[in-house]
Amino acid sequence: MENNLTAAPIVKKTLIGQRVRKPDAPEKATGKTRYINDMVLPQMLIGKVLFAGRAHARIIRIDTSAAEKLPGVYAVLTGKDAAGLKFGFVRDNVALKDQVRCEHDEIAAVAAETEEIARRALLLIEVEYEDLPGVFTPEAGALVGAPLVHQNFPGNKSLSFEFKHGDLAAAEALSDYVVDNVFRPHHVTHCCMGTSCAIADFDHNGKLTIWTQTQYPYNYKMDLAPALGISPGDIRVIQPPVGGAFGSKLDVYPYEPIAALLAKKTGRPVKVIYSREEEFKAAPTRQAAIIHMRTGCTRDGTLTFRSADVLLDNGAYTSWGPTIPVIMMRTTSGHYRVPVVDFKAQAIYTNNPYAGSFRGYGNVQTTYATAQQMDMLADLVDIEPLEFHLKNAQKSGEVTPQKSFLRECVLAECLETAAKASDYSRKRKEYAALRDLPGRYKKGIGLASSIHNAGGAKIHKSDGIGTILKVDDFARVTVITGASEIGQGIDAVITLIVAEELGVPLEHVTIVNNDSDIAPWDVGVHASRTTFIAGNGTRRAARKAKEQILNAAAKMLDEPAGTLELRGGSVVRDNCGTPLIELDRLLRRMHFQAEPELVMVSDYYEPKSEPEGAKHISDHSAAYSHAVHIAEITVDTLTGEIKVDKVTVAQDVGRVINRMGLEGQIEGGIAIGLGYALSENMRIEKGMLTNPCFRDYKLITAPEMPPLDLHFIESNCAEGPYGAKGVSELPTIVIAPAIANALYNATGVRIFNPPMSPEAVARAIDETRQAGGRRESE
Amino acid sequence: MNEIEQYLAPRRLDEALQAMANGDATVLCGGTDLAPQTESGARQYTAKLLNIRRIDGLGGIAAETDQVRIGAVTTISEIRCHPALAEIAPVLVEAAEHFASEQIRNAASLGGNLCNASPAGDMIPPLLVLGASVELACWRGGAVQTRLIPLERFFVSPGKTVKLPEELLTAVVFDRPAADFVGKFRKSGPRPALEISTVSLALGARIADGLLSNVRVAMGSVAPTPLRARHVEAALEGKPLDAASIAAAVAATAEDAKPIDDVRASAWYRSHLVRVFLEEVLNDVRGN
């Protein structure tokens, strides 16, 4: 091509905002993907865990001798083998227990030749328990004289949080209307299609390789090390393809150190994999809470204050669940313009299953309260709800009481777009007028919104990412990145950004991101951060490579610097698109010239955000975003069934990067949120889960997914890659209160203890009818 | 933990019955209940696993004569897609429509659904209102012996029937419904697919000159076994279908439905749904 003046110009075509397929989609769709659950290593043993199956007990005696004698059994471990190896946020957990604090406490573990032998061995372990009285609600746990879950946590007190801003008494005095409700968000669980699984293997230097589903491979080493009594430096984390995570793999859970302890003992690789029932019982939950929330406003509909008094059911151990107040308080203080805020939260140990992090992280629970109270206040003030929301919506440049700086804020545009697209105001009035007329089926429409961090959240000392990028002699690009792929689609985003910057085909980009010995540091997949953080990291690395390439090209081709561009696999003149040399030829020339150079660059990106801090007054994310959902439903007032007819979504996405991935994240987020709203419910009775199966734990299935009308509002975030913001949690957060508000519009009832199951709805409607009409108390 | 030592898949009924003669075989057909129950430990396999799917003459729907006969291994999908059944007994086809999911309907057999004896078994209420009986066969005295049991007397308690361990359910039979027969089925649960019935209800009756006769009402998940709602039936028998008789029938559900609280629903909700469904199906019939 060089010197070939007849070559056609290559036109600039951007990939930003296009629909790009996930690189692993064909393999997943055709069943070729080998998930961690499918993996088999030579000499591998199978580990099985003996769970307590009771909520609170002392272990009087444990006898493993018969299990040890069973042919094919290589190791049997009990609490004494993990004694002192405490791990977790407050070091309250241990891989194998010498006391029972919850149903799924791991009492013993077996490594055997086959799963069948391991199962038989578990049956041969004799354990004598002395059951103890337990505490099964946070209220019960907080009572004076309540049984203690951990002797060293008096009052069963786990973590606590507080944030106050402004004069609450004065704000209350100013308020013409105050709504005051207690919400009780429930236990649900992630239901990853790939159940929890880890494979551990030690080498002769004592270095552990662990194949696991973790979504935070680097801090994971720090968290796993104390559970094994080894150095974090002696842990290599490999992340094979996983069948979902959604926050459930953001901590170390006992099956991981158990696999490692068994591997250490046997000198062979050991795989622990949960059955579905074990997964239901032993995997983390979404945090259950009791939220006493109050919101006030003046006669003209201006918010005056919001207060939240939160009690968290910590469960038996402290994982990410009880840390959700970090985000709960951001929503309490930042969901609309709230001048005065009073937030406090206390987590109380109970003998229930314990919570981890889960997509939406505290904001699902809080927004269920705040967004319903906005709806209630609008009715009390007797103001058009849209007008009420707009009146209190923040604008660009505003700062919340916790110092979240809303640089680009398009909440008003989201509200107006969704309301207009769904004809919200007219329908709401019309349905409310029909509410008390006869008729079995009632229509309702409900609006909810929320705010969430959309540029990471600096709850660790760093929220950064390392990226290494190399371009080989054939113009194939490899990105070695800390960004984990757990199904959310960062692989497609990275590929798209590299192709955008370097003008190479999407298929010519390879990503290496699953080995902690190779890829550089990243904080992990959480806080809607990966497209924002890894997107920036990838773009910065790609631009460094591009600069090196174009400088070399300018020199070699004797073109003025700054006039060249990479496009369609070639170096072109930026202004006219005339191709000058194919990229691969150029790269070979660079490599094999007298002063050879290879293209391999690295980058460390740290977003401009402030550490969360103990006082929680900080601009902790590099961006914030809003979403508005308007749900339209039909309620069968006799059976209580809610059919979701349509959901209109307007979300500030900053800028669309991969449109297909974005749509997928919103659809998937709504599916999880719908399950939370309508059907999913872990029924825990005295600490025991009574529905550990998909038959009785109801996920939303395809026929129940409503049509979605998606509107992406582009606020063009200055700090985000190409203007993008993080997107993935808001869809899960906003849908439940939108349905709750629609339910009220349709029937006049509210469900304060989700899910809004048919039975709960039928009962609430029936009680209201018995009471002789619509409840006015809300 | 029991191990399967022998797997049998005979072609002939007499072979199968001989294999069952000691009452020690685990019968497999679709496996849609057996597999999850053995997996969860609720049931154990015995040493002998007997697949009855390949037995000649155990499948198929014969609907041409005065008596309808449905072979035990007939799948729910076959019932759902059978044109003659849709004409003769739409209430049964309607229940098949609402049965689990496509995959399970393709595997699950009618006989299995009955022998599983779940109070929530979807095919049971419609067969009860059709007045169905089940045919049980065994090997005795060197020959195949059969007996016919009215379905209503088949169920003992959850998971238990009067069928002896050496007996095999071979077919379901019922008289071809009269021309003026109407049947309705209704079930509920929190979602439209893959749902275990919170409660189910079927109505079957003849309507002549505006009066109901031969009224049969069956309910599922309101007692340890699916049942015929005798008090509700009595409230409707011989009556015109009007507001008064419907109200009386709905009130009578309290006498028949004695549900419990469990993981799927409370007793209150089940009783409530029975009233709602009964009123709904009666109004449906009245509207037509």
Structure description:
The complex is a heterodimer of chains A (778) and B (288). Chain A has 778 residues and is α+β, with helices and mostly antiparallel strands. Chain A folds into three domains: 25-33 and 464-605, 2-Layer Sandwich (Aldehyde Oxidoreductase, domain 4); 39-132 and 194-282, Aldehyde oxidase/xanthine dehydrogenase, a/b hammerhead (Aldehyde Oxidoreductase, domain 3); 289-457 and 613-770, Aldehyde Oxidoreductase, domain 4. In chain A, the strands form nine sheets. In chain A, strands 3-7-1-14-11-12-13 form a seven-stranded mixed beta sheet, sandwiched between helices. Chain A has a five-stranded mixed beta sheet with strand order 9-17-16-15-10, sandwiched between helices. In chain A, helix 6 (217-228) links the parallel strand 12 and strand 13. Chain B is of the alpha+beta class. Chain B folds into three domains: 6-51, Uridine Diphospho-n-acetylenolpyruvylglucosamine Reductase, domain 2; 61-175, Uridine Diphospho-n-acetylenolpyruvylglucosamine Reductase, domain 3 (2-Layer Sandwich), CATH 3.30.465.10; 181-287, Enolase-like, domain 1. Chain B has helices spanning 13-20, 34-40, 76-80, 83-88, 90-97, 102-107, 110-115, 124-129, 230-236, 243-256, 267-287; strands spanning 6-8, 25-28, 48-51, 61-62, 67-71, 133-140, 143-150, 155-157, 160-161, 168-175, 181-188, 199-208, 211-220, 227-228. Chain B has a five-stranded antiparallel beta sheet with strand order 4-5-10-6-7. Chain B is globular. The N and C termini of chain B lie far apart (55 Å). The mean pLDDT of chain B is 94. At the A-B interface, helix 3 and helix 19 of A face helix 11 of B.
